[in-house]
Amino acid sequence: MMSGEVMLVILIVIGLIGRSPIIATAASILLVLKLTALERFFPTVERRGLELGLLFLTISVLVPFASEKISWKDVTPLFTTVVGLTALAGGAIATWMNGKGLDLLRSEPHMIVGLVIGSIIGIVFFRGIPVGPLMAAGITAFVLKLWEWFGSR
User: Fold this and answer.
1) Tens digit of pLDDT for each residue in 126-138?
2) pTM metric for this prediction
3) Closest Cα to residue 132, out of 101, 86, 96?
4) SS3 for the chain, per residue?
5) Which of 33, 75, 86, 142 would staple 38 via disulfide (CB 3.0–4.6 Å)?
C-alpha cells in the first residue's frame, strides 16, 4: 500500500504538472504537517477545514456588500428579472443538492475517495475549482438517483 507521504508527493507533482497551485499547496501543507510530526492536527483539519474554507469563500463573495460596491438597488432585480429569479433558483437547488450530498456521504462515507480523485481530475484536466465536496456528492447523489430511475426500467 502507498504511504501517505508518497501519495502527497504524487499530488504535489500532479498539482505542479497540471498547473493547479491549490492542489500542490494543500498537499505540501499536509506533507509538512506529516513530516514535522504534527499529524495530531489532521482530525481537526479534516473536521473543520471545509468549514473554514467555506467561511473564507463566503467572506470573499460578501466583500462587495461590505465595500458598498453592491447596493439595495442592485439586489432588487433578483426578484424582478428572469436572470435574478434563475440565480435564486440556482442557489436554492445547489443548497438542496448539498444536503443530498451530505446524506450520501453519511450513508456511504467511502465515496469521498472517488469525489476527491474526481475533484483532482477536474482541477488538473478541466481547470476546475474545488469549492464543494458536498456539491460533488450532491451531483453524484442526483446521478445515482437518475440511474436508479432509468436503469431499473
Assistant:
1) 878 766 677 888 8
2) 0.61
3) 101
4) CCCHHHHHHHHHHHHHHCCCHHHHHHHHHHHHHHHCCCHHHHHHHHHHHHHHHHHHHHHHHHHHHHCCCCCHHHHHHHHCCHHHHHHHHHHHHHHHHHHHHHHHHHHCCCHHHHHHHHHHHHHHHHCCCCCCHHHHHHHHHHHHHHHHHHHCC
5) 33
